[in-house]
Amino acid sequence: MVVCYNGGEVNKKMKIRFVAMLLIVVLIFSGCASLGELEPGKLAEKEFNLKSYEGKLTFGFEFEMDEKAVSELSSYEVKDLDIYRYLNGLKLSLTSIKVNNAAGGWSVKGFLEKGNLKIPFDFYSSGETAIVQIEGAKHPLVLDKGIANLVKVPRMVYNVPFIGLLSGYFTGETESDLTKLWQEFVKLNISNLPAPKGLTVRTNDNGYVGTQVAFSLDDAELKQLIKTHLRNVALDDPGLRKMAAVLYDYFAEQADDTPYSFKQLLEDKQMSSEGIYGVEKAILSYLALTWADESEARYLDGIRTDISLTADSNQVLRALEMQVTGANEPGMNQGVKSGKFTLSFQRGQIDQNVQPDLIEGKGSVMLYDLDTPERLLDQVDEKSDLFRYLKYELKLTKKSFSVSLDRKEDMASMLEIIKDSGESLEEAFPFGYISDNMAYAPVKMLAAKLGYASNMEETSDGTLTLQVGANKWTFKQDSKTALVNGQPVDMGGSVENIEGTLFVPVRFIVEQLGGNVIADPDTSYYIQVERD
């Protein structure tokens, strides 16, 4: 994972907005009535049965930061805003998308832009194998089968590859697991979504005969639309019962991999389906009644969406334009004045047996083997835009780890566990404790995790010396002063010797070794350590 952050509030807002955007896209199918020549039901049916197409897609983000507000935030709150800085000015252009659902393969050519950086890439998936070749990477990367299988999912949103990748990453599901569930979900939503206000329909003749539908939604309209939608679905008894039957079949297929107590719940299909229906009904009724009062709804404050969609006379989606803007809190996070997301998608060559562009996987490496920032950066040419993007835009450091903090009295037992396991202190997961609002951890462990080989010597008077390269630190038990290359330096806390293992203030030794410590003021269970 390239970017890791612990901003729970930021992450929650992002998820709510993402779900809202997906709902907005589905709104184009709202209602059962025809919109000019466009028939929503047939449009969805076509998407489920689409065999192949060519297309292109671009999307990008822009954010305006409130630097004065940012200056008043804590260092940890500022780090929570990193996601906005990462995305600001980011543009992804997929200049060639070739999808063949019938054969189970698709390919993408495109580039990522950020400021003066431009990173071309190629992607190919056969359903069994997925390979990405990025300019600046020393070798092609092979992705796992779960991501490759996403191409098989015949659904509108997943036919936009980047959304498919995101959704599949979060769910971990494949076509065999979700196709029936998804189709029933779409049917349930199409039949219950209310039409947005301000809907305009006109005939399109831009290279093909079709219908263009456009509408805009402000935050109040979107909130009301969501609430109405939830109410409609909650009251759709036939639709919920059909969904319950499909869910029962899905659970029944997985029964062999579940505990016996769960299998018992599936022995009577009629009763089990009735129970699933009851759960659906209860959850949706609760959401419909409480949505407007829930704190989550306020995250849509200041959000405005503009959408234009075009379908041809065969009821196939040909183009989608979307712009989502937001301004001020609580719709935007503190420190962010405004933001904008834009998306443009076009496609043609519908069901013309489009063939994806193959990528030779010679010399490729598995993506899951690059499980640390150091391993990832080692696979990138340091003179490339890709390296500059990872290092200077995403602030990816070669060493990054968290230190789990427990009670001081637990340290002796933890050291004993490590000893009994045969694992060395340098190999163990980083741990330490808090004392007087200061974090302590084994000095040799920290040095090793930061990438330094170290030697430690103990003299008869209890003095310990740590040697890292040409630098030397001398510590004495219960002393707050360390000698750094012979010069006394205040560490801010006393040295502790627990079962022969030297514990020192984490911030002192990490900063001495060229790293940084990032502490969350809201938790005392861990701290983050990073070093270039």
From TrEMBL:
Q: What is this protein called in UniProt?
A: Copper amine oxidase N-terminal domain-containing protein
User: Which SUPFAM superfamilies has this protein been placed in?
Assistant: Copper amine oxidase, domain N (SSF55383)
Q: Which InterPro entries does this chain map to?
A: Cu_amine_oxidase-like_N, Mao_N_sf
Q: Which residues form the Copper amine oxidase-like N-terminal domain?
A: 433-523
Task: Report the source organism.
Answer: Paenibacillus thalictri
What is the top-level taxon of the source organism?
Answer: Bacteria
* UniProt-listed Pfam families: Cu_amine_oxidN1 (PF07833)
